[in-house]
Design a protein that fits this description.
The structure holds 2 protein chains of 2 kinds. Chain A has 24 helices and 1 strand. Classes of the chains: A mainly alpha, B alpha+beta.
Chain lengths: 517, 128
């Protein structure tokens, strides 16, 4: 019975925790090679774009992989549907690693669709989840994109922060080309800030890795080096590097720098060749600057027709830029989001602190309560002990009083007996047994040890000792015990030896007997 | 038969060209770089006019840049067209199609002699 219940319980648990997994082997393979070969993934997955037969897990994975491959390939897409489906699917299934990726790529799409507000918030959400997922490969890409977006809007403080995080993630991945790319980005940002020392520093950091790279990454590194050389008026060396870059992997920055070199050399024809390359740049700033230079160049050459055509193109670029005007909003939104995050963290910290204080107060209260209970119990014990003490003390006092009374009574009786015995001795009469017994009783009552001392003695010896103890003269003792004084003296000497184990005279015996307590 | 003869002639001619080209070094940078007839402005106009946005890329709203390399031969013809880094199949194909359809260039020169030069052009596909 227990086994059946256990089995049912296990099946329920397994059933609840089960997530639908993609089954399409091409998608699974595409996911494995995506980071290294995004171009192959685009080619592999492109035919599936309009495929409506895909299961939901496959469709979600397709949307994520395809959009990610396009982005990693340097392409831009404004098609939101596939990636939005992925985002919603992974959100429902709580698949955090894929959700973080889906959020990032959805944010990139939204950003290109000019839905800046939504894009920034989505990107920040991706960043938050990434912190929990902690996948350096994803983090490297995420921070790089965040850096690029901030770079595009000229928010260089944030740009540097994100590029440095990219560098840290790239180092965790041990990918030389990613490290160089991050170092290039940092160097380029410092170049934009006019901090040539930092530009040089990061160029030097990239130098050992640079020979292992090629294409765009190597071209950017060489462009950074050329830029540094231009800052130090080494335009000839810089020009050689830039020509090399443009031959291997043309990029906007290299073209712009080369155009500047040509312009400085007053070779406007060659400079114009670069401006022609740059007018189609995806960066509005570069495009505008090139259009303006080109229009100026064509006007100077008298080619007014072409100049007018490019002026109209420039207006279109300005128009697009005006429509976007998202620079400030991106910076503000990020700042707002970060501020909110900071506030939320502070709120959490405050709650934790308050909880700790509350716990401390509760513990203190419990401690005080426990101590008070203990004190009360000890007090009760003390009161009880006090009562016992008082009672015992009272008993002892009563006993003492009784004893004193008895002693007093005995003493008075003793005085009477002693007086009676003295009278008998004076009259020459022997002591009666009654008087002697009374004397013994009173004496023993006052000094119980005396009875113990006299235990080995016979009655007559005891009587002699008692009389000596009460200061009777040997003649009186002789009369009272019907003996001679000499006999009494001899008895005293003998008893000295017997009772006190001493040798001496009769007076020594008397002294010992009087001193006995 | 006539067709076979034509095929044979073409093959022989191609072999000769290959041998001739093999003997010619390809330069990356030369004193006088090859030039599109009419200069960069004309090249810009040619590309603007002839590049057709591929339908699938347009449908998927895909934009990007394709780097294409080719060799400008001593006679100004264009050969060895290659996409440096594959971006998107239809964009790559369109870039190759447009480049291969270009008229002959003015060849590059080194020390006064016409030489073969490798040239790289970035083609931007922008929907706006």
């Amino acid at each position: 019975m227990i086994t059946i219940v256990f089995l049912i319980f296990s099946l329920v648990i397994v059933g609840c925790s089960h997530q639908e997994q993609p089954h399409n082997s091409i998608l699974n393979h595409a996911e494995q090679i995506l980071v290294e070969h995004p171009d192959s993934v685009v080619t592999m997955l492109e035919p599936y774009w309009a495929d409506t037969t895909l299961s939901n897990p496959d469709r979600a994975l397709f949307g994520l992989l395809y959009t990610e491959a396009l982005h990693r390939n340097g392409l831009v897409t404004e098609s939101t549907q596939p990636i939005q489906f992925s985002r919603e699917y992974y959100e429902r299934n709580n698949d955090k690693p894929r959700l973080a990726r889906a959020l990032l790529h959805h944010a990139i799409v939204l950003f290109h669709k000019q839905q800046t507000h939504e894009a920034v918030l989505t990107m920040k959400r991706a960043e938050q989840i990434a912190l929990k997922v902690n996948d350096p490969v994803f983090n490297c890409y995420l921070y790089s994109v965040l850096g690029d977006i901030n770079d595009n809007v000229g928010n260089y403080t944030q740009t540097l922060r994100y590029y440095k995080q990219t560098l840290a993630a790239a180092r965790q991945c041990h990918k030389d080309d990613w490290i160089v790319k991050a170092l290039n980005n940092i160097a380029q940002t410092f170049d934009m800030l006019g901090e040539t020392d930092s530009l040089h520093y990061y160029n030097n950091l990239a130098k050992p890795y640079a020979p292992k790279t090629d294409g765009e990454i190597r071209a950017t590194y060489l462009t950074n080096v050329a830029s540094y050389l231009l800052h130090h008026n080494k335009s000839k060396d810089a020009k050689q590097l830039l020509l090399k870059v443009l031959q291997e992997s043309p990029n906007d920055r290299a073209s712009k720098l080369l155009a500047d070199v040509y312009l400085a050399e007053r070779d406007t024809f060659s400079a114009a060749e670069q401006w022609y390359q740059l007018i189609n740049s995806f960066s509005p700033d570069v495009s505008i600057s090139s259009y303006r230079q080109l229009i100026k160049y064509l006007t100077n050459r008298g080619d007014t027709e072409r100049a007018a055509y490019f002026s109209s193109c420039l207006n279109d670029v300005y128009h697009d830029l005006y429509q976007r005007s998202d620079v400030a909003s991106i910076i503000d939104l990020q700042a707002q989001f970060d501020e909110q995050q900071k506030e939320r963290q502070q709120y959490h910290k405050t709650i934790i602190l308050l909880s700790a204080i509350l716990m401390l107060i509760i513990v203190t209260i419990i401690g005080i309560w426990y101590s008070r209970r203990r004190i009360d119990r000890l007090n009760a014990c003390f009161v009880e002990s006090q009562k016992k003490y008082d009672k015992t003390r009272e008993e002892l006092t009563q006993m003492r009083l009784q004893r004193e009374r008895e002693e007093r009574e005995n003493s008075e009786q003793l005085k009477t007996i002693v007086a009676s015995l003295h009278a008998s001795a004076n009259k020459g009469r022997a002591a009666s047994d009654e008087d002697m017994n009374a004397l013994a009783q009173c004496s023993y009552a006052l000094s119980p040890n005396l009875q113990l001392l006299f235990a080995p003695l016979n009655t007559k010896e005891q009587n002699i000792c008692l009389l000596i103890r009460h200061n009777f003269q040997p003649t009186e003792i002789a009369t009272l015990t019907i003996s001679t004084p000499q006999t009494i003296t001899n008895t005293r000497v003998r008893l000295l030896k017997k009772l006190f184990n001493e040798t001496g005279g009769a007076k020594d015996f008397d002294a010992n007997l009087h001193a006995f307590e | 038969m006539a067709l076979m003869a034509l095929f044979g002639l073409t093959t022989v001619s191609a072999q000769k060209t290959v041998v001739a080209k093999k003997n010619q070094q390809v330069f990356d940078v030369v004193e006088k770089m090859p030039e599109y007839p009419g200069g960069q402005a004309a090249l810009f106009e040619y590309l603007s006019t002839n590049v057709k946005y591929p339908a699938d890329a347009e449908k998927q709203k895909i934009q990007g840049r394709v780097l294409v390399t080719f060799i400008v031969n001593t006679d100004g013809s264009i050969t060895d067209i290659e996409v440096v880094k594959k971006a998107f199949p239809s964009l790559d194909a369109e870039a190759v199609r447009v480049i291969s359809g270009m008229p002959k260039w003015i060849p590059g020169e080194q020390k006064g002699k016409k030489v073969r030069v490798k040239y790289t052009i970035p083609l931007s596909f922008n929907l706006r």
